[in-house]
Amino acid sequence: MKRLVVLFFSLALVACGGNRKSLDAGDGILYGHQDDLSYGHAWVVTDAANDDLTRSDIRDVAGRYPAVVGFDLGGIELGDRSNLDSVPFDLIRRAALTHMARGGVVTFSWHPRNPLTGGDAWDISSDEVVYSILPGGELHDTFLVWLDRLAGFLESLDGAPVIFRPWHENLGSWFWWGWRLCSAKDYIALYRLTHDYLVRERGLTNLQWCYSPNGPVSKPDFLSRYPGDDYVDILGTDIYEYVGEDGVKAAGVRFQAQVREMLATLRAIGEEHGKPWCLSETGLEGLVDPHWWSDVLYPAITGSGIRYVLTWRNAHDRPEHFYAPWKGFEGEENFRKFAEKEDIILL
Ligand code: BMA
Q: Do residues 259 and 305 touch, judged by C-beta distance below 8 A?
């Protein structure tokens, strides 16, 4: 309960302090962008210690920062200096604290390496990984060291409230903690172990726990690996638009229907369980639909009751890998149209 109050407090800060639309946070949707302050399309912060962190693709295009910024902690478990996308953890910490000082909300995802094979988060060559790191498993002690390093980073935020979203997209089978890679019982045990280590062992009270399977999935599927109301503060889902052989327009129609249906499911679960809900990751790679923001995403989320929507990163070293506009991108005007909507909140 205390944790939720902290979240609402930080959302209210955004709504009151940072946005010229005088919206109650409960009515508006915070817009978020992954890695927004550490790099963008064709630029990257190089002076991690001194950069003033005012550059942002979103600000370049819309004049304001995203209300939510996401960062990924993949690599922290090994004690690496930089994450899996080569962003230094010192920069991530400073960018997260800077964003919160501006009134924004921060969310952390985590793509940890595969502890059994040594591969990455996408290494699904073994279905014994989760089992092996649970109590009694051969790698349990190793995993506790990983959690210790993760806790060290989260502790270094000095109690600032953040959303933590581990073990995401777990109803698909592309991560080693995915659907076909572990039993529901073991998945839930993994989530609870992570939670209990950070909260009970390490006393971290600043984390809002987000459970965010990939969507669309049915309500029974969503709940089949739900860690429980005592472990989760926010319900999320990750849904991307993929363009198939039937083209961009059909992809948009399909995506919109999927998002609407999934968010209706989250609303039903959220109301039953007393939890807020969000669209924790989304996007269309390369924004190949010029009207995506106004005609596809916005109608899919307006009125859905979500607290926030986060689009994925704009890689600086892969020109086609972006999910938000950047200065000079031909679709920037369409994003501004989205950002100007009454219920969309930027910072
Ligand atoms: C994926 C891609 C990868 C990246 C990963 C974690 O969706 O963007 O390039 O390494 O997320 O950020």
A: no
Which residues are CB-neighbours of 324 under 8 A, at least 6 positions away?
33, 36, 57, 58, 283, 287, 311, 314, 335
pLDDT greater than 50 at residue 326: yes
| pLDDT greater than 90 at residue 346 | yes
27 burial type by CB count under 10 A (0-12 exposed, 13-18 middle, 19+ buried): exposed
Estimate the share of the chain in helix, then strand, then coil, as percent rounded to the nearest 5: 40, 15, 45
Ligand 1: which residue has its CA nearest to atom 10?
Answer: 85
Ligand 1 centroid – CA 271 distance (Å): 32
- Over 80: is that where the pLDDT of 8 sits? no
How many angstroms is it from 24 CA to the middle of ligand 1? 33
Using DSSP bridges, classify how beta strands 68-72 and 29-34 pair: parallel, antiparallel or unpaired: parallel
User: What mean pLDDT is predicted for residues 33-51?
Assistant: 97
C-alpha 179: how far from chain center: 19
Residue with tokens 């690996």: 225
What is the distance in A from the centroid of ligand 1 to the CA of 111?
A: 9
- Kindly list the protein residues whose Cβ atom lies closer than 6 A to any atom of ligand 1: 72, 84-85, 111, 312-313
Q: Is the pTM of this model over 0.70?
A: yes
